[in-house]
Structure prediction request, 515 residues.
Amino acid sequence: MVTKAAKPIWKRRWFVPTVMYGLLVVIALLLLFLADWATIQRNFFQLDIVRDMFPKVLTIGAKNTIIYTAVAFVVGFVLALVLALMKLSPIGPYRWFATSYIELFRGLPALVTIILVAFGLPLAFGWRIPFGTAGKAAFGLGLVAAAYMAETIRAGIQAVPRGQMEAARSLGMSAPTAMAYIILPQAFRIIIPPLTNELVLLIKDTSLLFVVGTTPASKELTKFGRDLMNVNANATPLTVIALVYLLITLPMTSLVRQLEKKAGKGR
Amino acid sequence: MEPPAIEIRDLHKYFGDLEVLRGIDFQVRTGEVVCIVGPSGSGKSTLLRCVNRLEDPTSGHVLIEGDDITDPASDVDALRAKIGMVFQQFNLFPHLDVRKNLTISQRKVLGRSQDEASKVATTMLERVGLMDKIDEYPSRLSGGQQQRVAIARALCMNPDMMLFDEVTSALDPELVGEVLQVMRDLADEGMTMLVVTHEMGFARNVADRVVFMDEGIIMEDGPPAEVLSNPREERTRQFLRMVLEEGF
Prediction:
């Protein structure tokens, strides 16, 4: 029998977990005793400020964030689908257009695109985006989201085995019919997870609409919170809107997980 | 005189610099069963895929019942609907159940109603002995069952002829028989069939003609007894020796 004493202490089985848990406890204790909890509470968790924020943080801030996300996603998705199909087109100019579009809007900061759409277009051409902030969200953020989603959709289409298109065409389906009924339904199943990712990113990107949604009724969550932060000279509103963001994003990711499971059954 | 079901005239196909088909001429008459055999890389699958223009030939013509499918002005979708095709990898639509696999092209291409298409689907599934699987998804079926559904799916379009592209090559050995049986029944019913296969038994017993291809040309073309038992070409003899030894 091998004597246990021959093994150095850092190779024992209990050593690494113990050290890791130990570190965690030390950090927690340090935080507990060294942090100035009174100051933190005063700056981030003032209950009367929290109370004053309701219900408007939901009926204005959260509502607008959700509306802006929804319109930008719908516009972005439709545009992305068109771009993805153009990118896969046998016709050169379509491909070139799609590629230029995608490179352009992925290369620009979303904030710049929003400002261009909201202030640049009216200045240059006298065009005004209709439907107020929601319209600017749809066009500004939608244009950007489309560039990202187009690549996702294209990858999804290409992930469907080639034999599927061949089988559909051999049955006499035209290319558009085969795309609509055979390829796209399968592609969408594949891209549900990355598309959700885009949606969560989009929710967070609506905070960039603070430059356009400035009236009391058109503020989204971040603008809503920042304004209250200035009014109260206190960071508590930030804590509240952070929690509201999580309230929106977390159920969504779990919902999509269920969708994925359901879609997976048909495979 | 009735034109042949399939007529191929001086067909050439390049993949890049590689000439895969080097001048193919042959015909399949209506009701005939023709098996194409040959070593892998001989161009037999490419030839089959040129017949319904899944591959575009570099030059030459393919006439389907007298209509040139290689003519850019031809209605390739309408011609394809007359040509059933079955693939090595089955290629059932995984997001649709068996019924929808069999009805979708009837509805979208032939414009049949759901009821009508469903009736045809039922008939064809009975023919391949899989009526009880109509509500299953393809992933729940064995390879042999999937391939029989794929045959039924092609038959639902009431094709004038059927192409089979190594349809038993991806199957476990014990599942090959059921698929070959369905093909044999089809042949007995008078279906025009062009079959790329490694199943020498099937070629010998079912085919009216066997075509031996090698390096992009047809080396030999004749009745199975002649080509498989008494080949004229040394290459054919070599190939047959190899296939028989490997026990295909």
